[in-house]
Amino acid sequence: MVKPKKELNFAEEEGEFIRKAKQGNLYSFEILVKRYQKNIYRLAFRMTKDHDSADDIAQETFVKAFTSISSFKEEYKFYPWISRICMNLSINYLKRKRFSITESELSPQKLENQKTVSDPINQMIKDELMDRIDSSINQLPPPFKAVLILKVYEELSYEQIAKTLKISVGTVMSRLFRARERLQKSLKDYL
Amino acid sequence: MICKDFEKLIHLYLDQKLDQQKRKELEKHLSECQKCREKFETLKLVEEKTKAIKIPEPGDTYWESFSQRVRERIVSKQKQTFGAKIKEFASNIFVFTPARLRVAAAVVSIVLVFIVGKLYIDYRGTIPQRVKPAKKEISKAEKLETTVETPKMEGEKPIPPPKKSAPLRGEKKITESKEPEIENKKLAISEEAELKTIEAGKGAELTTKKHTVRDIGKVASVPEIAEQEALKSVEKETPKAAMRTLADVEEKKAKPRSKLMCVDIIGEGDAEGHTVTCSMPDGTKIPNIDYSHGGLSTDSLRVIRDFWKKFIRDNPDDPAIKYAYLQIAGSYYYLFDKTKDEAVRIEGIKQIEEFLKISTEEETREALRQRLEKLKSLKAKPPSKVLCEAILFEGQTKMTTTRYSLPDGTKIPDVDYRQKELSADFLRFIIDFWSEFIKDNPDDTFVESAYLQIAAAYYHLFEKTKDEAVREKGIKQIEEFQKREITEEKKESLKERLEDLKGLKEK
What we know:
Number of helices of chain B: 22
Distance between the termini of chain B: 22 Å
Helix content of chain B: 55-70%
Oligomer: heterodimer
Shape of chain B: elongated
């Protein structure tokens, strides 16, 4: 008599895919990619505000996840793990980008062109205040921005953010409060 | 509690982290304090608006192909990793440490000995036939070999001088195996000798391949007298014994064969554009190397330098030494120009100064002085642009070589510290380097960038070490930079860094 196959729940199923991926099974890993691709892309986009960079970071997140999946401990959840990879990549990207802008001799004209490039995003934000907040978030230092995004959009607790970014809860709170203060300050003239 | 304390409660309230009691306290305060109420309202509004910000979603086509693209990237990365491993292995092989150079030199020598030995065997296969004939014919044929110079061998592949022992082996072998045929080939050889253009004088211009091979075959040069003596004894003894005697004479002669080395030098560089402008007392032409054409590798320059150093050691009384001085000075100059290795510059200066002490000829001294001045003018301070670019941009090319060095000879790694996870040591190195740079080049236009570099390095160093002392030092340093005269843009960047660093305060 054929034993009926036990139906796996979401977590068990995920565990199974991870185990197979650890053995080098790329197809199993692809299922995980499909499961989380949107979340990771959104996270990257929130950080970078640029489709190409977000796409690149999202892909790289999964590539990194696959190449280092052997270090993933199965008692943990997969999504927080990959979101940490994504956030680290995004932070590094932003630091690089910021540095290169301050260092390179970008002419005002070039900066103007950059604004035009991000216009499609801005067009989506109808609310003027939201537009202002959005650009203020963009100007936050990457570590501050990361905390804010994880708190506001991922709705993570202080502890979860601390785990994701490998910082202390105190640092999470301090960064979050400072980020908010900065946003408020940048809207001072507006409100 | 004062308003400042309530500010923190406002944040906690927004994050729903306040217990009932604190919540009531806050609400009570907000109803009494207008300033805090306004702040609360603003923060709440900002929070709500932030949450409401939507982002554009890529279309279905994008999502359908996403996992496929990830898969392709993984596969390509796996291939790259394999390739990189091979590359790394290969690059490690070609890292020229002194020990490796010695091994490489040994291997090359063995190969050369083999090649020259082979050539010698091929050539000397006919020698015994020349050894035995009548006195006059032998002398003529051998003299041709020993005195004909091929100073200019354009298009010839340079062949460095082989080991002294090579001909000995070749000779032994040939003598033993070819002995019975000697008589039969005697005439052929003497005819060949007759047919050649014999120019025993200096600067003979023979460019046929045959002569080149003969020259190489002789390797360690034997002065004419010594050779003639050897040949005399050859006439008396059996061919086998005669060869041994000749080899012994050759072995005793250890002086470098300048002619061959000159050819070697030409070959190292660009075969074109070299003119032979001066010759040594024995008639050997010294190539006038065009160092500046850029074709000479650092290795070639080192070969040239070491060759002439050896020449000076072996021929301390040779009048051609003055050329050696200039050649060495030139090679040091261009070697430094290429490597930017301060150790090379210092060594070069020291060396030229030594030459100036012993050199007597005014013309040479003047040329040496000029070289010295040039080398000194390259200054001990780091050439800012080059060094900065090395640090800023080299890493992006993913190169792993070290091409630039600090005044003390410290190599600057070709890494882009913005892209990679860098060690605390490297970040400290960056701080020290730029601090020194500012000290040495206070008027350099790159100084402002150096401020930013230091500020960035402090930021990353603190993030890595979580050392409060680093943070404090960084803050102090940035604040000090802010006081200096810098552009508004850089001032703003420094301000941001300062705020970042201040915001990183750990418990």
